[in-house]
Amino acid sequence: MAQTATQNQQTTGINVEFDVELRKVFKVFNGEIVVRGIDLSIRRGEFFSILGPSGCGKTTTLRLIAGFETPTAGDVLIRGQSMLNVPPYRRPANTVFQNYALFSHLTVWENVAFGLRIKKRGKAEVQERVKEALKLVKMEGFAKRFPAQLSGGQQQRVALARALVNRPTVVLLDEPLGALDLKLRKEMQVELSNLHQELGVTFVLVTHDQEEALSLSDRIAVMVDGKVEQMGSPSQIYDRPQTPFVADFIGDTNLFRGRIEGAHPTMLWVITDKGLKMKVQPANDTNGLPLTSGAVVVSVRPEKVNVGFSPPDGSLNCFEGRLKHVMYLGTHVHYVVQLLSGDQITVRQPNALNVPTGDTPVYLHWGADDCLALPE
Fold it and tell me: pLDDT, tens digit, for every residue of 119-178?
C-alpha cells in the first residue's frame, strides 16, 4: 500500500513539500468566529496533531480539511491543489471518527469495501485491497462479523482499515481513541504509530489528550480560541512553551507571576508577586525578541523541582515550605508543598523507599535552566 501511494505521488506530477496547507482560513458560525486566520503547513508523510481544549476550533479545522465544512475565508490545499470546490468524497483524504461510524447492517468486510464499491472498482481489486487493509490492522479473521460483535478496539481497527483501503494522501483522525479504556487506548496508540511508520501516509490527528499528542506526533499545533497558539515538535512544545497557556495546557507546571528585576543575555532575575526571587532562563516574547523587562510568568515543571529536608549549598532557587499532601503513584510520587510565601507547588519525583509524610518541613530547589520566563 505504501508503494502504491508513492507511485500515485509520482504520477500526479506535483512536487510539493506539503500534503496539507491552510492559508489564512477563517470559519464563522452564526456570527461567531470559530477558526481565526489559521496558517498550517503539514509535511508529506508527517504525523501532525492538532491539540487543544474543548471548543478551541480543532475539530472544525479537521472538518475544513475533510470538506465537511467550507471556509468563510482563506484556502485549503491538499497536495498543492485547492479544495475549495471539491466535495469530501472527491478529496484524497479519509476520516476516522471517534464513534467509528461503521454501518451496523454490514459485515467487517463489507464496511471496508464500501468506499471501493461506491467508486465502482472491479471485484478482483476490491477483494485484494480489502484483504490487504484488514491484514494491516490485524483483523483478517473478523471479516464476516458485524460491528456489534466486535470490541471497541476492534471497531476502531475496522474504521482505520476503511480509511486506508482507499489509499488516501491524508488520513484524518478525529479523536479516534477517545471512546477506549486507558489500557486499550495505550495499545492503539502504539499500533497507530507503527501503522504510520509502515505506510508513510500523512496522518492528521485531532485530540485534547496532551500525552497522546506528545507520544505520537512529529509536530503539534496547540489551538486556543480558534487560533494556533504555538506549533513545533513535542519537545519544543513541552520544554520551550512560548506562552503561559501552552506551558499550563501541555503537561503539568507551576506558574508564578512577577516582573523582571534584572536581565542578562542568557538569564533573568525575577521577583514574583509574592516576593520570591528567582534566577530564570528567558524565553522570547511574541515578536521573537528576548525578554528584558516587564511582567512575566515563570513556569517550573513538577519533575524539575527537587525536595530536601535541609537547604542545599549554592542553590539559587531554593524556598522553604511544608509538605501538605503526598500521593503515591507507583513509578513516582506526587507532592503538594505550600511555601512560606503562600504559593502552592506540585512536585513529581521518582519512587523512593522513604516517602515523607504530610506536614513535614521541606526545602524545594531547582536550577535556573529548569524554569522559563514567559511574556504575560
Answer: 888 888 888 999 988 888 888 889 899 988 988 888 888 888 888 888 889 999 988 877
Q: Residue 51, SS3?
A: strand
| Cα(65)–Cα(75) distance, integer angstroms | 10
- Long-range CB contacts for residues 189-193, cutoff 8 Å, separation at least 24: 189/215, 189/216, 191/137, 191/157, 192/160, 192/216, 193/47
350 and 257 co-located in one domain: yes
Pairing outcome for strands 170-174 and 202-207: parallel
Boundary residue ending a domain (239, 269, 285): 239
C-alpha distances in angstroms, 203 versus 14, 62, 114, 164, 211?
20, 11, 22, 11, 17
| Domain match, 199 and 256 both | no
Distance CA 336, CA 57 (A): 34
**CA distances, 93 to each of 63, 100, 160, 194, 212 (Å):** 11, 16, 13, 20, 22
The kind and range of the H/E element at 374 are strand 371-375
Q: What single DSSP character describes residue 355?
A: P
Residue 317 in grid coordinates: 532557587
Nearest-angstrom CA–CA distance, 33 and 133: 39
Note the pLDDT tens digit of each residue in 258-287.
999 988 777 889 999 999 999 998 776 665
- CA-CA distance, 308 to 20, in Å (whole number)? 50
Contacts of 372 (CB under 8 A, 6+ apart): 240, 241, 247, 280, 281, 282, 283, 298, 299
Closest CA to 213 of 246, 166, 165, 242: 246
DSSP-assigned states of every residue in 273-290: TTS-EEEEEE-B-TTSPB
CA distance 369 to 143: 55
CA-to-CA distance for 181 and 370, rounded, in angstroms? 34
Task: Give the three cell numbers for residue 82.
Answer: 485547492
Query: Distance from first CA to last CA of the chain, Å, rounded?
Result: 48
Q: Which domain holds residue 56?
A: 2-92+168-239
**CATH number for the domain that contains residue 266:** 2.40.50.140
* pTM, two decimal places: 0.85
**For residues 44 and 216, is the Cβ–Cβ distance under 8 A?**
no
What cell numbers appear for 226 in the block?
480558534
